[in-house]
Amino acid sequence: MAEVSLSELASFVTAVWEHLTSPGQFPVGQYEVDKRQVLLGASVAVTTTLLAVCLRLWRRKPRMVEPQPTTGKRMKAVVFTSYGGPEVMTVDEDYPVPAPSAEDDVLIRVKAASINVLDLRIREGYMNALYRSSRRKAKLPLFPIMVGRDFSGIVEEVGSKVTKFKPGDEVWGALGLDHTYGSLAEYTICKEAALSHKPTNLTFVEAASFPHVALTSWGALVTSAGMTKETTAGKRVLVHAGTGGVGTFSIQLVKAWGGHVITTCSTSGVELVKGLGADDIIDYKLENFASRLSEEPKLDIVLNTLGPHVEAESLGLLKRGGAYATIVTPVVNSMDNYGIVLGLLFALSQKWKRSLYQRLIHGRRFSWAFAYANGEILDMVKQMVEDGKIKPAVENVFSLSEVHKAYEHLARGHARGKTVIKIAD
Predict the structure, then answer these.
(1) 95 CB-contact burial (10 Å; exposed 0-12 / middle 13-18 / buried 19+)
(2) Taking Cα atoms as reference points, which of 273, 246, 275 lies closest to residue 262?
(3) How many CB atoms lie within 10 A of CB 267?
(4) pLDDT at residue 413 above 90?
(5) pLDDT at 69 over 80
(6) To the nearest whole number, what is the mean pLDDT of the chain?
């Protein structure tokens, strides 16, 4: 059986389901059969297939790989020494510098890395099941866990099959969920497919603020909600929490493609989102977004970056044929609670049920959005940045020695853009 990651499996099954639940008809011979007539049968078939694959993955012995080799040099790296509060995070000044082991590995000398709320959740045990699985396969102990996902830097060394990059290239990228090394370090290892050349008009600090939020936003608006450059013009798009990292990027992406952006924020964030191009701004401290929008034309797309508490009201604002995408999903929590196989199956069954209800009853598209490390997407974002259509929104810059202070700021919430750690000049 070919190797397949759980993230690829989930992405494939979700894509199949989105096709099945899209409006239209199936051609069957010379007849046209409404999709609703076969949705029940299709859902049973897909669920049965997923269960069979999950059982096969569960029964298969873990694929063991050789431990990541090192260069023999040492570096500074931010690590979690266990699960817990701020006290479990430390700057290890004697961490081994990794060396490319796979043919598509790229060793990066990191210049800057941004921090994300996801890091705080991982520190508390989020993604525990995935980390245990990936590190067991790599013959590594669970701790220490290196911290950080996105970065900018300079290529130091490449694997034997790497063709797109060479030593000295300035790059940006994001690490996959199953990465062994983090980005909050002087060096990290990244797959060639997850890398892109850094925009020429950005500093390393500015570039480091983009990859994770860009990939998350793209996964929600483009992959899940179906937004495209050709079809976005004139569409009404609601972006919740416009001053956050995903929000600031999403506003600019929708505007770059000609959409009409409505966003929510607090009073102190109004000027920021206005500067990013938001057309309508709702101060959630002064008015409820649903009450405000209930008297206006229905929405084409809603991007939920906040969580379930705004879901029902957001769905009620969508027009028939509209799309709802949320980046706050129960998938990882389900896997942490029930194990990877059963947790994934349980979470996706819940998603399919809600998607089916929204499609059949209200004619709306309902999606859970996921971000995947993808250099091709970053290549497209790079062009938009160089064309001046998207600009960085950096709120704060800290040094590596100030990493605790940086996370304290992040934990307080109410972000106004991204917080970046400058690692080297």
Answers:
(1) buried
(2) 273
(3) 10
(4) no
(5) no
(6) 88
Cα 141 to Cα 354: distance, rounded to the nearest angstrom: 38
Q: Token digits for 165?
A: 């990059």
On whether the CB atoms of residues 199 and 140 are closer than 8 A, the answer is no
- Characterize 339-352 residue by residue with b for buried, 16 or more Cβ atoms within 10 angstroms of its Cβ, and e for exposed: ebbebbbbbbeebb
C-alpha 120, offset from chain centre: 15
pLDDT exceeds 90 at position 31:
no
Residue 354: DSSP 8-state:
H
Is residue 204 within a helix (H) or strand (E), and if so which, with residue range? helix 204-208
Is the pLDDT at 38 greater than 90? The verdict is no
Between the alpha carbon of residue 305 and those of residues 54, 212, 240, 356, the distances in Å are 29, 14, 6, 22
pLDDT in tens, 261-315: 999 999 999 999 999 999 999 999 999 999 999 999 999 999 999 999 999 999 9
Residues in the chain: 425
Q: CB-based contacts of 149: which residues, under 8 Å, 6+ apart? A: 116, 118, 119, 174, 175, 179, 182, 183, 211, 212
Question: Which run of H or E residues covers position 145?
Answer: strand 145-146
**Residue given tokens 């220490």 in the structure block:** 144
Q: Residue 209 and residue 421: Cα distance in Å, rounded?
A: 9
CA pair distance 60, 54, nearest whole angstrom: 10
- Whether the Cβ atoms of residue 240 and residue 306 lie closer than 8 Å to each other: yes
Copy the structure tokens of residue 66. 């050789």
The C-alpha atoms of residue 420 and residue 400 are separated, in whole angstroms, by 10
Could you tell me which residues come within 8 angstroms of residue 230 by beta carbon, excluding any fewer than 6 positions away? none
User: For residues 215 and 400, is the Cβ–Cβ distance under 8 A?
Assistant: no
pTM score, whole prediction: 0.85
Q: Can you name the residues that pair with 174 across neighbouring β-strands?
A: 150
Helix segments in 323-402, DSSP class H: 331-338, 340-357, 375-386
